[in-house]
Amino acid sequence: MSKTNVADSALILKAEGLKQHYHVKQGMFKPEAVVKAVDGVSFNLEKGKTLAVVGESGCGKSTLGRMLTMIETPTDGQLGYLGQNLLTLSKSTQTKLRQKIQIIFQNPYGSLNPRKKIGTILEEPLVINTDLPKADRKAKAISMMEKVGLKAEHYDRYPHMFSGGQRQRIAIARGLMLDPHVIVADEPVSALDVSVQAQVLNLMMDLQEEFGLSYVFISHDLSVVEHIADDVMVMYLGKVVEQGTCEQLFDNPKHPYTLALLSSTPQLSPEKRRLRIKLEGELPSPLNPPSGCAFHGRCRFANERCKSETPVLKLDSYDESEQGHLIACHAVEENRINLAEEVA
Amino acid sequence: MSLLQLDNLSVTFGKFRAVDNISYKVEEGEVLGIVGESGSGKSVSSLAIMGLIDFPGKVTADQLSFDGKDLQAMPEKQRRKLTGSDIAMIFQDPMTSLNPCFTVGYQIIEALKTHQGGSKKELKKRAVELLTQVGIPAPESRLDNYPHQLSGGMSQRVMIAMAIACNPRLLVADEPTTALDVTIQAQIIDLLIELQRKKQMGLVLITHDLALVAEVAHRVIVMYAGQIVESGPAAEVFSTPKHPYTQALLASLPESASGKARLDALPGVVPGQYDRPQGCLLSPRCPYATDHCRKEEPENQGSLNRQVKCHTPLDTQGRPAA
């Protein structure tokens, strides 16, 4: 597969065993420690689909996003884009291909340069990556601004003149300037109010339909994820603990951590507040992760095996109807979790 | 007698009315939720209660009383004594509201010393007790920690410990869990509610998270652009909202849109200082607005228990009254 069109390949992005390990100096005489920020993440992303990555702060979801956009080079693993391994290609081909994977950051107050006009911000990717003449760049910027719900007269304004929601629209427009196939959205709505959040989510879904975009949607808000995602990946301390389609994960969650996340999320309707699994303690330090299953210290289903043996991501053998629903948990594997007891 | 009573409280910054004639009451042992988008005046109104609005901000009220005592009339010194001991506040960002230069123990003891006094040993014992109460493991060693050595959840627990140090009767929590992860949020909210029940405190919980308020609050106030647009028992307000704004807020939550392709987003944003519309402040964004709404500001309707500020409040089917 050398030259593949997006049109005839459904699979756009394929990650296999992606790892990002950082070496941390701890002082002159202590040995260097290794922080496994992301430790073996694999997924497939198809055209027009949304993959959500969920987890608490420090679980490695943002690092994953940075690896996908090649802001950081993974220490190990493969990243395939339309059948080509992005990590082994020559620099010049990489530069070409990475235009097609763009990122939107969390905080629209920090991700736009306050000294540049909106027009300049939007045209910057074109100046760097293409040789379009000035007039064409401006035309493209203005048409993109209209697509994301801004007006043409905003072209000459500065970021401080916009509200948070409008700034996030600008950030989205900037991400779309190079006609990407994949957008990595790192907590794109968590800094926004609910009514504005709904506007931005709707916009993202409209754009997905119009351009056939694929999203990697990084978020900690499960209700947003349930609304927008096709596939969901739950991460804990650098590892994927549960992975499946949106329906599988929300209708039939299995991993104790997923259960805890779901039951910690406040629910508007009383009927939905069923599970009551509250987690004790906090995310352990990635410098000194627990042995065995990283979650065992906070898990009420943990036994001796969980403390010593790291579980692998696999299908639940007790529930064969669930294709592609992967769980990394000894308790699920041994069928030790009785959900009926947990319903309050 | 109510624990806290506000009548027509306004906070103005020059010509701008950040809080516009709001009235509410908090009873002992009651959890009152205040919700609204950023810029709706939630935080400013609570700062006004605490007496923390500085020049050029100006607080006016027909009544602002705590436990029958008029907070506006009392001398500054007496009010300072009340705030921090009987009325306490927890701020949004635990990382920045603790002083990074002092140990956690010093900061807790400081509050105790100002309001209660006692020997060094007693104070330290009390600080350890407080940290145990808020669920911090190994409290003795934590006293000597600096804020940067604590995680976000731990810092917020310390903030709560400081707030409840003098057994307050009213606790104002301004977005206490917004900066935290969901699992930690659940822990902190459980802790707050447990303390509130045990001590029969009044708790004012300010947040933009509607679902959180729906879970814990007895009564809820919905604010928009400095005004209270709807208030009532939490379950009632969330199941049958009477104000179009409350309805729109609820509809824009992703969890209300199950099975739907798009969320029902409320267009536009909260009006700022220079773009206040005439008449009802929501009228430019309201799907039901009439010419009457655009000209004349609505009055509060309904009983004290369930109020709505709208010309055409919604019926139980969620449609505007004719």
From TrEMBL, chain A:
Listed SUPFAM superfamilies: P-loop containing nucleoside triphosphate hydrolases (SSF52540)
Superkingdom of the organism of origin: Bacteria
UniProt-listed GO biological process terms: peptide transport; transmembrane transport
GO MF terms, alphabetically ordered: ATP binding; ATP hydrolysis activity
Keyword presence, Secreted: no
Domain ABC transporter: 13-262
Entries under Pfam families matching the protein: ABC_tran, oligo_HPY
Keyword Lipid metabolism: no
Entry keyword set: ATP-binding, Nucleotide-binding, Transport
InterPro entries linked to this entry: AAA+_ATPase (IPR003593), ABC_transp_ATP-bind (IPR050319), ABC_transporter-like_ATP-bd (IPR003439), ABC_transporter-like_CS (IPR017871), Oligopep_ABC_C (IPR013563), P-loop_NTPase (IPR027417)
Membrane-spanning ranges: none
Name of the protein in question: Oligopeptide transport ATP-binding protein OppF
Organism from which the protein derives: Marinomonas spartinae
Gene from which this protein is expressed: oppF_2
From TrEMBL, chain B:
Compartment annotation: Cell inner membrane
Protein name, as recorded: ABC-type dipeptide transporter
Record field: catalytic activity: a dipeptide(out) + ATP + H2O = a dipeptide(in) + ADP + phosphate + H(+)
Enzyme Commission (EC) number: 7.4.2.9
Taxonomic superkingdom: Bacteria
Region (Disordered): 294-322
NCBIfam families: oligo_HPY, PRK11022.1
Keywords per UniProt: ATP-binding, Cell membrane, Membrane, Nucleotide-binding, Transport
A Pfam family the protein falls into: oligo_HPY
GO molecular function annotations of the record: ATP binding; ATP hydrolysis activity
Membrane topology: Peripheral membrane protein
Top-rank EC class of the record's enzyme: translocase
